[in-house]
């Protein structure tokens, strides 16, 4: 076992926490949520020729009792498991020996409150429930460690997003998955694969169980080279047949509404067939995602043509955990239908688009239509890029 030399309150806390652990007791299994995610990402099983080749290097932060590290090592990964507790790592090392995976599992004592591992390029860096009552700048740790992910490699962060009844942390103000993504501050070389809240059944002491939630973020590093290891480039998709600009009548209203309808259809097409697990995944460092853009456009339609007020425009870019793709699309279509009724009822584009509010006169219907065309066209372009990052599909 490799160690660092510094001590901190974090080390003292976790040494006390794990001091009763004994390698003679049954080893822990993997976190069920992580095992499920690993299957989705094709991290397991490794093909037989890849096992033990020195490839597929994984780094686990705050490994604790090491159930996930043991599980990956048993499936051919070369795992370095980092924790602050010397005792829990000694127990993990002995369990690895007994399981016959000591050649694929290295333990390293490291106090993440003080510094982060710097041991080369990884195919997978993961942090499962790296949440602690001890004060530590976790965001800084994750940002720094993300730099050691190799080309084509994955960064996986799995967090508690609710409190089980037996948890040491009883709170209801957990961040949203999009907040977790933004806290990582990943650069343009990253592609978001998963950014969502998931529900599962947790099992606690005395046989108790409860439904809890997790925030799940997965990102792949892309730097122009061919990805290696488990991170897979989305399969190329056939280009969607381009639809030419619409042929409209000669009237001003017909031209404006024709182009707006054309762009709205383009927006809907960008979510057609998109994998459910990817519609919330941020494709760029700002956290922008497919579902959030469509939700935002629905709010813009209702604001411009119906006069509905929006108190926080930034919030409209993020779909809540309980909102489904079908629900967001239904909301967008309903907003478009309501807007079209308001447009159809207007016989003079110079008139206000709606009744206004708080004593302010609404902009003209002409202005509202031009602005909606601009807004929809801009975000349709964003959607086009994000969809290509997801599965390679392009086209208007």
From TrEMBL:
Stretches for region Disordered: 1-30, 218-253
Residue stretches of biased makeup (Basic and acidic residues): 1-22, 239-253
Methyltransferase domain sequence ranges: 59-153
Annotated transmembrane regions: none
Protein known as: DUF664 domain-containing protein
SUPFAM superfamilies per UniProt: DinB/YfiT-like putative metalloenzymes, S-adenosyl-L-methionine-dependent methyltransferases
Organism: Nocardiopsis alborubida
């Amino acid at each position: 076992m490799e160690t660092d030399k510094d001590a901190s309150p974090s080390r003292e806390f976790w040494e006390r926490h794990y001091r009763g652990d004994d390698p003679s007791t049954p080893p822990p299994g993997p976190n069920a949520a992580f095992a499920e995610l690993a299957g989705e990402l094709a991290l397991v099983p490794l093909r037989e020729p890849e096992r033990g080749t020195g490839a597929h290097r994984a780094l686990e932060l705050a490994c604790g009792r090491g159930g996930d590290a043991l599980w990956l090592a048993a499936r051919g990964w070369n795992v370095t498991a980092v924790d602050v507790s010397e005792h829990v790592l000694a127990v993990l090392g002995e369990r690895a020996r007994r399981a016959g995976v000591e050649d694929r599992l290295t333990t390293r004592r490291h106090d993440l409150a003080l510094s982060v591992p710097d041991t080369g390029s990884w195919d997978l860096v993961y942090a499962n429930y790296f949440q602690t009552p001890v004060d530590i700048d976790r965001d800084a740790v994750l940002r720094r460690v993300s730099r050691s992910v190799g080309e084509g490699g994955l960064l996986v962060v799995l967090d508690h997003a609710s409190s089980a009844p037996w948890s040491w942390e009883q709170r209801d103000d957990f961040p949203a998955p999009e907040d977790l993504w933004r806290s990582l501050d990943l650069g343009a070389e990253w592609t978001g694969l998963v950014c969502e809240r998931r529900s599962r059944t947790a099992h606690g002491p005395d046989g108790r169980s409860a439904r809890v939630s997790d925030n799940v973020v997965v990102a792949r590093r892309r730097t122009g080279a061919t990805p290696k290891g488990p991170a897979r480039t989305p399969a190329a998709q056939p280009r969607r047949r381009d639809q030419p600009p619409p042929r409209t009548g000669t009237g001003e209203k017909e031209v404006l509404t024709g182009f707006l309808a054309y762009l709205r259809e383009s927006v809907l097409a960008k979510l057609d067939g998109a994998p459910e697990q990817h519609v919330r995944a941020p494709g760029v460092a700002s956290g922008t995602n497919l579902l959030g853009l469509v939700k935002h456009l629905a709010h813009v339609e209702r604001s411009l043509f119906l006069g509905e007020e929006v108190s926080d425009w930034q919030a409209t870019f993020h779909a809540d955990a309980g909102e489904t793709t079908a629900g967001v699309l239904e909301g967008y279509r309903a907003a478009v239908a309501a807007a079209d009724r308001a447009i159809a009822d207007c016989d003079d584009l110079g008139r206000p688009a709606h009744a206004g509010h708080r004593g302010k006169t609404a902009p003209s219907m002409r202005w509202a239509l031009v602005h909606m065309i601009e807004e929809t066209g801009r975000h349709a372009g964003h959607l086009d890029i994000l969809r290509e990052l997801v599965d390679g599909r392009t086209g208007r």
